[in-house]
């Protein structure tokens, strides 16, 4: 019989092999747990995204009409309405395109985290769109659902479980 030998050159006993297997399994679980992003990192990345979106939405929603007004004097209704629509859609487009193109928002890039499928593949266009849409539509519930990341071995929030995603360190 071949296998691991003890320091004295003998085969380990069945108890020793069981203990080694348990230690290896614990180490594997710990390593696997560490590859997923936790609550604090996810909230920090989301905060960065929120600040960036606030700046961009204000710039589009108010800045474009203000710039037009400074040049022409009066803002046409279509420009004002169009700016407001674009500003309102900006968060949806930002999260959707970020997750389906790079798997990362700018906040995610800063903290080194990405939204992926459990097998490590990309989220895909429909799943990224649904994740962004429902995340923005139910933002307070989405945030409360993040609390369960401390209980899940893959640190998934409620929306990750529902959408079939994980947030990994990359």
- How much is the average pLDDT? 86
SSE succession: HHHHEHHHE
The proportion of residues forming helix, as a percent range, comes to 55-70%
- Strand share of the residues? under 5%
**Biggest β-sheet description:** 2 strands, antiparallel
| Low-confidence runs of at least 5 consecutive residues | none
What is the straight-line distance between the termini?
Answer: 41 Å
Query: How much is the radius of gyration in Å?
Result: 24 Å
Number of strands: 2
Number of helices: 7
Q: Name the strands of the widest sheet in spatial order.
A: 1-2
Folded structure, characterized:
By secondary structure, this protein is mostly helical. 66% of the residues lie in helices and 5% in strands. The protein has helices at residues 14-34, 39-72, 77-101, 106-111, 125-137, 139-145, 158-163, and strands spanning 113-116, 166-169. A two-stranded antiparallel sheet has the order 1-2. The protein is elongated. 19% of the residues are buried.
Task: Describe, in short, the structure shown.
66% of the residues lie in helices and 5% in strands. The protein is mainly alpha-helical and 170 residues long.
Structural features:
170 residues, mainly alpha, two-stranded antiparallel sheet, 7 helices, 66% helix, 5% strand
Question: What is the strand and helix layout of this fold?
Answer:
Layout: H1 14-34, H2 39-72, H3 77-101, H4 106-111, E1 113-116, H5 125-137, H6 139-145, H7 158-163, E2 166-169
Antiparallel strand pairs: 1-2
Helix pairs in contact: 2-3, 3-5
């Amino acid at each position: 019989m071949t296998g691991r030998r003890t320091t004295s050159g003998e085969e380990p006993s069945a108890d020793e092999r069981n203990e080694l297997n348990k230690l290896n399994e614990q180490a594997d679980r710990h390593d696997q747990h560490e590859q997923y992003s936790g609550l604090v990192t996810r909230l920090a990345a989301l905060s960065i995204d929120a600040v960036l979106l606030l700046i961009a939405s204000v710039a589009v929603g108010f800045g474009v009409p203000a710039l037009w007004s400074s040049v022409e004097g009066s803002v046409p209704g279509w420009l004002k309405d169009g700016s407001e629509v674009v500003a309102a859609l900006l968060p949806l487009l930002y999260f959707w395109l970020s997750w389906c193109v790079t798997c990362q928002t700018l906040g995610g890039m800063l903290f080194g985290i990405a939204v992926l499928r459990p097998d490590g593949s990309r989220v895909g266009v429909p799943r990224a769109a649904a994740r962004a849409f429902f995340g923005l539509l139910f933002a307070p519930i989405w945030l409360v659902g993040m609390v369960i990341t401390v209980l899940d071995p893959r640190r998934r929030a409620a929306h990750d479980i529902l959408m079939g995603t994980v947030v990994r360190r990359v």
